[in-house]
Design goal:
18% helix; three-stranded mixed sheet; binds iron/sulfur cluster
Length: 90
């Protein structure tokens, strides 16, 4: 159905899906199409983080493979400097 890889080393425990004894939470909507998504028992997990929701809580996941281009930041114009420059030019 999908070409998502299976989560390696995953086992089903009473509390949920775990890898090496670490419980995993399913991915969140924002993870969609990320290359790190793995499938197990019809659920999707992240191969890099046990808790994707927490990864996204602080902003964009820094390991996301599907939205690198929008990182931005450094190329941004400093609005204060830009307005000073505009004022001088008048
Ligand atoms: S790397 Fe980040 S975006 Fe990709 S599946 Fe994991 S938590 Fe989601």
């Amino acid at each position: 159905m999908s070409n998502v890889k299976t989560l390696e080393g995953a086992v089903k425990t009473e509390e949920g899906i775990a890898v090496n004894g670490v419980l995993l939470s399913p991915i969140v909507d924002k993870c969609d199409t990320c290359d790190r998504i793995r499938e197990f028992e019809d659920q999707k997990f992240c191969s890099s983080y046990p808790n994707p929701a927490r990864k996204w809580a602080a902003g964009r996941c820094n390991f996301a493979t599907h939205m690198k281009a929008e990182a931005g930041g450094s190329a941004k114009v400093n609005p204060l400097k830009a307005s000073k420059r505009a004022a001088r030019g008048r």
